[in-house]
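Is NAP placement plausible here? Inputs below.
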Amino acid sequence: MTNGQINNSGSSTSPGGPVLVTGASGFIGGCIVRLLQERGNNVRAMCRPSSNRSHLPPETEWVTGDIRDRDDVCRAVEGCAGVYHCAGFVGPTHYRLSDFEEINVSGTRNVMRASAEAGVTRVVHTSSIAAIGGGDGQLVDESISDQNLMRGYALSKRKSETVALESNNHGLQVVVINPGVVYGPRDRYFGRLIEMHIKGRLKLIAFAQRSLCLAYVDDVASAHIAAMERGESGQRYIVASPAVTLGGFLRTLSSVSGVRPPLWTVPDVVGKAAFALAWGTSPVTRFRPPLRMSELSGPGPAYDGSKAERELGVTYTPLREGLTRTVEWMRSR
Ligand SMILES: NC(=O)c1ccc[n+]([C@@H]2O[C@H](COP(=O)([O-])OP(=O)(O)OC[C@H]3O[C@@H](n4cnc5c(N)ncnc54)[C@H](OP(=O)(O)O)[C@@H]3O)[C@@H](O)[C@H]2O)c1
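Reply from A.M.:
I modeled the complex. Tokens:
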């Protein structure tokens, strides 16, 4: 697997200087910083002035700024050997589309341009399986680009990935990582479902047969580091464990946590009615349901994370082990 060193002898990164991690206050960016620090790499961590930095050691080199501001980004990348661009706006139910455009798309453009201008050799860009999309029941690999992505988060991740890959032609090597749904200690999104379950608040579920493509956060961070060292530039790599159903996931979680599984499984027709109501009232509630009605009929797509295993040396943490560490962390807080 990766040892987190930046390869100074080959063509993959320029020598000297720290590596910058944008979004270092976040779930995935914070894990990348921690793994790089454990490996003894020289890391510069970027976050906003308001960000929580308490998860990283006090000796961490921080640079503050907003990725929407070109000057902030230029200052952050100055002198860096490589950049992990992990900052992003994650809000699949967020209503205002312009926030996705400004942070995910324009912010990525700023990072790519500033990196090229500063002579950074290699950028690893954090994309998502949401940027790939895929049809119902399809096993999706890196060759697929669904042309029918939902506006909002998914479309902004596709656009930012396109900006990143187009920058690969301008003296910069760009590698893209497409994680599945990431879980683990410090998760602020999917972790809410796990937390509800271990607190005994998850009483019912719907869409129990829908597929979930999860990725444990340390695997995602390790994949980023391996991509910096030996990922092929201009390529994307899906990082996702084999799919499980939502029902199967909850059974494993129950067995790990010792908390009973939800008592009721609601028929899909009831789940669909709830989604229809949420879509109908969306302009008033300003809540954007994460899936379209047309996406609710079948199991959804599954994602093939084997290229990252073969080419980046990723070894996927078994779900039971990842959930054990996550539940332990949640209970220790
Ligand atoms: N979580 C997942 O399941 C998942 C799956 C696939 C892909 N991804 C992608 O992975 C990346 C990181 O996601 P995450 O789960 O780690 O989310 P997160 O915990 O919300 O982290 C996002 C990071 O971006 C920073 N950020 C947001 N807006 C910014 C701005 N305008 N300027 C500078 N920094 C800004 C945040 O700063 P603050 O701390 O100040 O908010 C935070 O450090 C995102 O690009 C996301 O699309 C996530």
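Short version: Residues 23, 25-29, 47-48, 50-51, 66-68, 86-90, 103, 107, 126, 128, 157, 179, 181-182, 188-190 surround NAP (CB under 6 Å).
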